[in-house]
Specification:
Strand order of the largest sheet: 2-3-1-4-5
CATH superfamily: P-loop containing nucleotide triphosphate hydrolases
Number of helices: 10
Order of helices and strands: EHEHHHHHEHEHHEH
Strand content: 5-15%
Number of domains: 1
Distance between the termini: 14 Å
CATH class: Alpha Beta
Helix content: 55-70%
Radius of gyration: 16 Å
């Protein structure tokens, strides 16, 4: 079984994906980490996120076994990842890796922005997770504070809105809800309630 979870930044899709993978005994891939790793390679080398050739080279030599998730979750890496993910050649370089991961037994839960539309269009279950920009900014601010950072919530909201626009308007695999995806709005749900709703969606899809 393949479960495709898409949605904008800080919607809760990553947390849901991890919990669903454990619940159903599947492997999990946070595809955002792949793009973050490309972005981090550029930033660590002192190069800008819009360095097209550098981003393509980094994507082609990526080694997921060496990912440092804590480092890749830095705020500036996330912002840069939104830029590099709009580069068609970067997406093409990472396409095969994601499809091969999804296809390996016993199945997987993948979360990102184009899983249900591009990477796994034939996934048995597709969920599009969303929340209002204000709620997502609140969550991201709390997350960053929990890491010892001191973010300004209004600045975080501004960045989220800008990132949403980039993700929706990019030419390569824009963020869009797949026609057959189930919409899950988590604005007023805590993680337990969101998880129960997601499990119900998966169980209903399996039953049918």
């Amino acid at each position: 079984m393949i479960i495709a979870i898409d949605g904008p930044a800080a919607s809760g899709k990553g947390t849901l994906a991890k919990k669903l993978a454990v619940h159903f005994g599947l492997r999990h891939l946070d595809t955002g980490l792949i793009y973050r790793a490309v972005a981090a390679a550029l930033l660590d080398a002192g190069r800008p996120a819009n360095d097209r050739e550098g981003a393509i080279a980094a994507a082609r030599t990526l080694d997921p076994s060496r990912f440092d998730e804590t480092s890749l979750k830095r705020y500036e890496v996330g912002e840069a990842a939104s830029v590099v993910s709009a580069i068609p050649e970067v997406r093409a370089a990472l396409f095969d890796f994601q499809q091969e991961f999804a296809a390996a037994p016993p199945g997987a839960v993948l979360d990102g922005r184009d899983i249900g539309t591009v990477i796994c269009p034939d996934a048995e279950v597709k969920i599009f997770v969303t929340a209002t920009p204000e709620e997502r900014a609140r969550r991201r601010t709390l997350e960053l504070k929990g890491r010892g950072e001191r973010p300004d919530e209004q600045a975080v909201l501004k960045d989220i809105l800008a990132r949403d626009e980039r993700d929706r308007s990019r030419a390569a695999a824009p963020l869009v809800q797949a026609a057959d995806a189930h919409l899950l709005d988590t604005t007023h749900l805590d993680i337990d309630a969101a998880f129960r709703a997601a499990v119900a969606i998966v169980e209903a899809a399996r039953a049918s």
